[in-house]
Request: fold
Amino acid sequence: MRWWLGWFALALVVGMQAGTAFEPLGSAGATRVADWIDLGTPFVVLGCAAIVLHRAGADPHRWALFGVGAVMFSLGKGLHIAANSVSNVDDVAVSEASIVHLWDEVASHYIWYAGLFVVLAALALALRVHDVRPGGFGMVLALLVALTLANTYIEGGTPWMGMSFLLAGVVAGIVWRRDPVSSLLLIVGGAGFLLLAGWGGYWYVADGTVFPQFSELGWI
Reply:
């Protein structure tokens, strides 16, 4: 089970940043290669999560919670890929239309990220009775997940929602401090929250803006 939890973390790190990570691969006709690769993200991320739940002996309530999160995750991801493809067309009137922005940068992100939170909640609940305290490699993966979530919430334009999700992880880690899973919750939630809050605080002090996106700064 621990191995599959590791694969889930790795799939999450790559999948949540697939559009940027694989962008250098260029185009395939009128589409982007990165988008074709990104179609596999829900299968890999949710597939690994499902195996972890199975190995953990999750009860029907955890599976039901996972099912809701999986539908939201897949729906949001699909909306994002579709609307993002439209925003990449050459016709400026189409690519910059307000309705395209709504589905590409707003609705899809909130649905997608909320679905991921529900999936993570299902996993955390199922793993409470298992010893999943991270070793050295597990610690690295947990920190990479925290960094990925912080990056996702910043570039996705959902920092306040992200902070609430990460803070919820910290609170759960404190409440469940006697359970081994609390270590993962505190690492991911705590590191992610500090990264996100630090980013917002730095830029507010530096130039008065709050949570600028990396693309707005010209970094990606």
In short: Residues 70 and 141 are 22 Å apart (CA to CA). The first helix runs from residue 2 to 15.
